[in-house]
Amino acid sequence: MKTPNKNIRRTILQIIHNSGAAHIGSALSMVEILNAIFKSVDIDKIKNSQNDRDRIILSKGHATSGLYATMFHHGLLGEQELSTYFKNDSLLAGHASHHVPHVEHSTGGLGHGLPVALGMAIGARTKKIDSHIFVIVGDGELQEGSNWEAIMLAGTLKVGNLIIFVDMNRLSQVGEVEKSCSLEPLKLRFESFGFDALDVDGHDEDEIYKAIQKSKTSVKPVAILCHTIKGKGISFMENNNLWHYRCPQGNDYDKAVLELRE
What we know:
Strand content: 5-15%
Largest sheet: 5 strands, parallel
Number of helices: 12
Structural class: alpha/beta
């Protein structure tokens, strides 16, 4: 496994600490997923809002600090704007908002992002626009039935420009995903609905990037199952579901800063 991306994680830690926000564990688990996606797209097309841009939707919108931090590191958000995250009168709310430039869809209500992403993918294909739609969902989020309606339709229509990333950190807000409502065998389930499905190390950017390039050649929709650790990169947060809601302050913040130093 490659060394986790500390630059983006430091930014996530800082904006959550400064604002008193939550969901740091959920954001830390998907840093490499997001960074690999943004490395795979034409950033200039996104900046210029071109019709043939690739589109990125964070369906697990409660982890939006991870999205905004990654956008910042790819030049899609300014430092001053980022510093307002989760503060009064800021556009950068705790859930993803399409009022923020370059955010494609407002998310936070789980199970909404994937159906919208499918609609975008169908629309692009119908208009013969050569672009891909990337959507990141949580494994706990896949317990929402609306996802499976979209997955069934995507497979039936062979929507090959749709790529789903599942952040498989095995924890939802209420505990272990497997114990509350099992998704296994998830890879076979996606395949049975007409998807190509790939297993990757969700903290290896190179492996995720290669999976994305492979997915772009598929005539089927693709599910990339990213095996991750909630709270990845800060030892006392890893696999500790208290950090779904807890905000790092005091000694916890100081320890996290030390762990994320170069």
